[in-house]
Design goal:
Blueprint: H1 10-19, E1 26-29, E2 32-33, H2 43-52, E3 59-62, E4 69-74, H3 79-89, E5 95-97, E6 103-108, E7 124-126, E8 132-135, E9 139-140, E10 143-144, E11 146-149, H4 177-188, H5 195-209, H6 220-239, E12 243-245, E13 250-252, H7 258-262, H8 266-279, E14 285-286, H9 302-314, E15 318-322, E16 332-335
Antiparallel strand pairs: 1-2, 1-3, 3-8, 4-6, 4-7, 5-6, 5-11, 9-10, 12-13, 14-16, 15-16
Helix pairs in contact: 1-2, 4-5, 4-6, 5-6, 8-9
InterPro entries: DNA_primase/pol_bifunc_N
Protein name: Bifunctional DNA primase/polymerase
Pfam family, one: Prim-Pol
């Protein structure tokens, strides 16, 4: 029997494969990067991490100009929504299934910025510049990320997504640059473990979106001050019991309806809390039947899902905004 040989984890095994396609990757710890400086990782640092983290079971990369990949993230198992999204943005040779049943459609990066829920009623994100992308065959807590159409060998076939505003290196005007950086960091703070990581994220954003030759670029001190302001603000909100959830733009400020919901039974209560995390800050949202596959206590029977949704509607917690259509796929709801 051979001794002294340890099986490589997914990151160490697949890092050189992605590197051969000029995609520097980094190890993940769950849905968080296991290292700092990942936003600027090159091939040498990526290789070193593969030696430092031989047992990591997940890897990720940054979308944007370096990797030339721009995924569109569909955070729903709804196949009608997937088909409509691909119809809207154009066909792609590479498709990834996420452990929760969602889909990543890979396109050629064409200068797009990162956009979280550009249409608030549809669970679709544009992972443009600065988007963190967990890569197949990473193992998540609920299962594996896997290519279900194409793979790395098809990267040369990628084309830009259609019907997207082109924002390649868009210059932020002097009067709005502080607010732009502040808003961006507030949306990124949930991914940063500490202040130094958030500063690194801020510097990357400044490099990619500010013209440093214009005389209006941020200094390192200004970047640090803005990042510290956002970090302190975030920690204060958490300390006040306002939990940082969902898209990063919403804080759950108390549960004024929780007692009412608890009286509706455990399934209605669980669905309510799940909706608060996933859609608490949205004006409208979907509650597809397939959401029953993404519950913390396992897959729900279809009837339990339907009954829980009806209970919340009948109690006036949520209400229908409009019925199912060819684009939305399912009925769209809003908070009552």
């Amino acid at each position: 029997m051979l001794t002294g040989i340890t099986a490589l984890g997914i990151f160490a095994e697949h890092q050189p494969i992605y590197a051969s396609h000029n995609i520097p990757t980094f190890p993940m710890n769950g849905k968080r990067p296991a290292v700092k400086g990942f936003t600027k990782a090159g091939s040498d640092l990526s290789h070193q991490w593969s030696l430092d983290f031989p047992e990591a079971e997940a890897l990720a990369f940054m979308s944007g100009a370096r990797t030339k990949i721009m995924p569109i993230d569909i955070d729903s198992p709804d196949e009608d929504l997937r088909r409509d999204t691909e119809k809207r943005y154009g066909p792609t040779p590479i498709m990834v299934r996420t452990p929760s049943g969602g889909t990543h459609l890979w396109y050629l990066h064409n200068g797009e910025s990162r956009q979280i829920r550009p249409d608030p009623s549809v669970p679709v994100d544009i992972l443009g510049t600065g988007g963190l992308v967990i890569a197949p065959p990473s193992m998540g807590t609920k299962g594996r990320y896997q290519f279900i159409r194409g793979g790395l060998a098809d990267l040369h076939k990628l084309r830009p997504a259609a019907n997207l505003d082109q924002q390649a290196r868009q210059l932020i005007q002097q009067g709005g640059r502080n607010k732009a950086l502040l808003d961006y960091l507030r949306n990124q703070a949930r991914h940063a473990d500490d202040l130094e990581t958030l500063i690194d994220v801020a510097q990357t954003f400044a490099d990619q979106h500010l013209d440093r030759t214009s005389g209006h670029a941020f200094t390192d001190a200004e970047i640090r001050n803005v990042a510290k302001s956002v970090h302190d603000w975030t920690q204060r909100k958490i300390g006040e019991g306002q939990y940082f959830v969902g898209t990063g733009r919403y804080f759950m400020e108390g549960h004024d309806k929780l007692n009412q919901v608890m009286a509706l039974g455990p399934y209605a209560c669980a669905l309510f809390l799940r909706l608060k995390v996933r859609a608490g800050g949205l004006k409208s949202f979907q509650i597809a039947n397939d959401m029953r596959h993404d519950m913390p206590d396992g897959v729900w029977p279809l009837r339990k899902m339907q009954d829980a949704r009806k209970a919340l509607t009948d109690a006036g917690i949520i209400k229908e905004k409009h019925r199912a259509s060819s684009f939305y796929g399912t009925t769209v709801y809003e908070w009552a």
